[in-house]
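hey m, so remember when u said the tokens were messed up on ur end? i reran from scratch. heres the input so u can diff it against urs
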Amino acid sequence: MENIIEKIKSGLKVTYKVMKKEISLSVKDAGVMLFFIIAPIFYPLIYTFLYNNEETTDVKLVVVDECNTPDSRRFRRMVDATKEVEVVGLAANMTEAREAMREKSAYGVMRIPRDFSKKIVKGEQTCVNLYSDMTSLMYYKAMVLGITYVSLDMNADIQIKQLAEGGTGRQQELSAKPVKYEHIQLFNTQNGYGSYLIPGVLVLILQQLMVLGVGMAAGTNRDNNQGKRLVAEDDLFNGTFRNVFGKAIAYQIVWTIASVFLFIFIPWLFELPSLGKNTTILFFAVPYVMACSFFSMTMSFIVRERESAFLLFVFTSIILLFSSGISWPWTSMNMGWRMFAHLFPSTFGVQSFVSINTMGCELGDISEPITKLWIQVFIYMICTCILYKIDINKGKKLLGNN
């Protein structure tokens, strides 16, 4: 029994030694420190600040009013009064309007046809044409919303006027609008781009920066060790599990602190929707950081040079954001993309954090993605141990030959 206790104490001491060494190397390596400490602080701040305005307002619009009647002038004044659109001028014809769009003095053209008022008087349906600069869907969305709101209000007014003169004004209003329409936006009350996108991006940032930092550290170790080995010569006899868990604990400590900053402080600072409890977020962060740690350690065996880690970051970031389900509905993806997305902790991390932070879910409500994160923890832990065992055996063989 005493022998077993001594082995446990010895194992814990060696694991602590590996953990302490890994933290020390991370601090001394300027490149690794950049991704472990500096980038987790400044990158989310800059990224979130860019989207802090939440929505596009006062999109510049030029009007071609071929009708030029009181009705058409009222319509364009009402459009200009919306928060979504700003009418910056009148164009004599479509050629002049297209020139304004080409010069970027306007991002859309609203064309009111010549028979606009005539059809209204006859009780016929008329239409207004919108031409949008599609270099940004946000411009199109703002202009469509603004013109649609005005059309609905003007339609109701016209219908009231065209109703029979009998009855009170209130009766006419009820006939024009028998059902009151009220638009309530759940979870994203400002209908903002930042509130929708940033929570998922924060989760992805943690994984990608960890892959970069661990990969860069792995590249440095290979440069400094004989035979491009990942495990240093003085760590060869520490044991596979002690090397793996010593480094994993070091990453867990550093990135759990970073997760508090990313998942709690950033949403609070920029007033993003934060309906979840901080304790729930912390319980989610534990398996997510562990999964990212072992995933990064597994991926580090692909990195042969320090610079190779950047290729993993650049190549995969956009793909992982799309496959997480935040940009395109998870249920609309084919089975191939879903299986691909299952390989990455960010997929279930994004789904879990968005549900907690934006929708106020408890851990019981997101048991499926949390369970899948724990499965990833064990799978990537086993993969890491196997790869480290191979690397250690290779190192011992080289050491024996020398």
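this time it looks ok to me. The chain has a mean pLDDT of 80. if urs says something different then somethings off w ur setup not the seq
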